[in-house]
Batch of 4 targets.
Target 1
Amino acid sequence: SALPPHLASSLLTIVGEFVFVYRVDAAGGTHLEWSNVTFLEWTGRTSEEWQEEMGSWMAFVHAEDRALVFEQYGRANAGERVEFEFRLEAVDGLRWTRFTLQPVPDPAGGDLRVCGATRDLTLHRRADAEARSREQLLRETLDALPIGVWHVAKDGSVLDTNAAGKRMCGGEGLPHAQNSDTYRRFNIRSSATGQPIDPLAGSLRAALTQGVASVDQEITVDLPDGTTHILHSSIFPMHGPDGEVTGAICLNADITNAK
């Protein structure tokens, strides 16, 4: 059964977002007919204040987004359902919002109505920005380290390498840390015995399959530029929430000059 109008109105008043209906007249003019909260509550100013102070109630839209907003409203006023995001200059600061505009034709052929609803995305946008900032800080920190850092997946593929790690590989990233061709190309061997390290039986394999860490294993590698380097290699398994090994972190410090 249909929801009684007074209940529908009360329900929309508590949704915490701006919900509204406006009419599009034959000349293309728009007229707000209903909203669950006032324009003042939503933006911090009345539409008249925006008109008086800024020249248009649309002035609350961020300057870089106004063309988009006008375009999307034009499409909705022509009968097309649209969804779009933009920034608004609220009294409490910059906010991100998503608009949905749903045209509703009049069965009797009268003026078009457009139902609108917003969703505040500000907290999501801020969280995304903070996450990107943390990722950037972590990347810059890793790249500033004098030791090579490799993030290795459970299958042995290298997911990421910092700047020092790439330098240790002659500018390359290891395509697969358990690939025999990789070990042969770099002639990875034990510094103590001179014997080649078997990628399927070495410390990385133990970390990935058994969760066993190794610290300061001394290895020797030959780089593509013809130089030979001695590394202190440490490998630490990474675990998921269930305790299962998900990969490993490999740390390699170049000690060639210390020898």
Target 2
Amino acid sequence: VALRGVFESELIDTADIVATGFVDFQALGQRELAQVAADERLFGDDLTAANLALLEARQRYVIFSALTLWRAPDQRVATAPAPETIGPLSERGYLALQHAFYDQIPFQSVSLDPIPGRAAEVAFILALPNGVDGAPAGVLVGYVPLGRDPLSANLLAQLDSLDERRGGGTLVNESGLVLFDSDPNQIGQRYQRPLTGTDHPLDRSGRDGTRQMTYAQPVSGYAWLVETHIPHVHLLLMKLWFILPVMVITVLLSALSFP
């Protein structure tokens, strides 16, 4: 029982660190993108200057793999790097663009549809102020692959650290798609469990049918979910590892007690 409690605490603590950390990650993306948006060249009609501003910002704020500037939901006017190297926004991303332009939502973030075998990306979306009649002067989008910055890289490493227990972790987006998993083959796959947290670790069947202790915790303020899991067989092996020396000593003492 005591050993199980240790493993349960490890599952809960790891999930809590990662879930809390991704709230900080969202704040980091917003803060960095706001600094990019302070460049006055993004507000003018000189698109050459706007492209140069994005190129310089991408070199300065290395969290972003790409930056794009939009004057309308269907009008991308500046990019860094070249536009042909930047993939499309997801359906949720284009919807967020419309909210920024038409509903004046100042900041949003959406995860792009993950591609199996590749690092998932998050798009941070910021409405530029001071447009005509209160509308945004434009919308700035910054793309961040998970693991590119030290903060998200450390959080993903936390999930991977459960590998020492033969376990692992999963990060799931608002659509139920896996953004990160200790098994890279699961990235982009659909999460097979409810997108809700658990009050305590539960015994469930894993992907391979074996029993696991699993714990799930939502990311506060965002429709993401963190799951941590450890297989039961590892718990049994650890119990055996602790019990075996006692059994050996007991047998030896019993043997020595005979004349």
Target 3
Amino acid sequence: RGWPENVNFRALRGLVRMRWAQAATKLGRDAARMLAGAHEDFAECCRAAPRDPTMLVNRGLAWQAQAAEDAAKGKDSRASLRAAAADLTAALEIDGGSTMVRGSRGEVYGDLAQEEARLRQDAENSFRRAIEDLDAVLAAEPASLRDLGRRGEIHRRWGSYRDLRGEDPRDLYRKALEDLTRGHALRPTDPGLLCRRGSAYRDLAVAENARGGAAAGLFRKAIADFDVSLARDAGEIASINNRGLAWLGLGHAQAAAGQD
């Protein structure tokens, strides 16, 4: 593309550093040094090629990786997520047709909403922006498994946020289930997707039980999803924890209905 040779090298090195940092964060190791190097590389690339959307996307994804590292250390990740959203927005202003970039921005807004909710801030606008981006992506690519999973999980988190505020979350949980069931039809054996859908069934069951609705069947569906998830990946910790909570919830629901 006519970049100086060192920019090509720095872009590649930045990507390697970012991936290394992401792996370190997942393993619970300190990723600060690698992330600092990635930020330095991508900042130089953006200075050399300020109108290249790829460079902006790379820097935005590095900010998203920084946010994950912040969260792992118990730090406020909002500044990193806002920087990520700003870079992805700048890339979309240059190449507005990229569904990959818009889906990534939707995920970032979803993470920002989750962090705002954790810090007891108003998260409604960030949740709405996340869903708007993913609605646009799925309108163009309705069979995108990744974005169905993203939108389903964000609907579920939005429902949890509404529930904590004393609002009825059930419509959002049902929307989450619609997306995750569509994703399940595309890849029936994905343990992570089954874990997410099981969590949505459990959350809806809890909400129904709290409002006098029929919850036992929903808890059973949650347990069935967690069972299949664990059959595929016995180390899926979220499925183990959530299955236990679903069994507990089923017991409460049966007691409320006068069943053994």
Target 4
Amino acid sequence: VREIWKSISERLREVLALLNVISAEWMKLRSNRIFTVCSLLTLLTSAFMVFRDLVIVDNPPESYQMWLPSIYIVVGMVLSIMSGFIITFLMQREYEDRTINNVLTAPTSRWRFLFGKLVIWFIWYLGTLIGVVTIYTIGGWLIYPDTFGLAGTKILVSTLLKYCLLGFVAAIPLLTISVVQRKLFYPTIMVALVFTGIQTFALNIPFKFARIIPWSAVVVQSLMELTLKDDLLTLGSIFLTGIVGLLAAYWLFKKQDL
């Protein structure tokens, strides 16, 4: 019983230490403008897309089924680009201001520090995504008042959440690039643009390649009807990329001489 209690206590201390790291990162997030700017740009882009089809365009797509695929692509593209800026800021500023040295001289493991950055990135991503989903749901009801309804809402919410959350997993290697680049600003942004390009033009890539390239596999998995084999292949490609990206980021970060 004593050994079990000791093990539980150690786990609780680890959890509390991680929560302290996340809390510290959250305080930085709240006081910084780049998170607000990236969120506003993403939300305003979504609002403009709805406004365009509702007011500017004389003939929007005839049905919401034709309207939704373009929405998924635009949202995935914008969130992917903005993620490049967010993760770059999260890591690059630590190196540039040398605050990373102060943080890691305190009793904070490198794994907790890196995982805290990932969690904050995900919190921003999910919060912004929820706002985007809300805007497009309202837009669907306004643009297609007679047909969108609960059925359209269900399709939009489920598909957009799946599309973007898988996109987040596939984008985790950006964390690896941000560790390698240290004080540099542009490498992570450039790689994010490459990921975005592959994802945006996924439907133009031959299927046999698109299903195994993780960033195009996000589109294939979310927007196509797949066999069990292709379903497993696309999901395996996406999650393997995310896991390898996180482990590589930790391994490289652990080896760095700060």
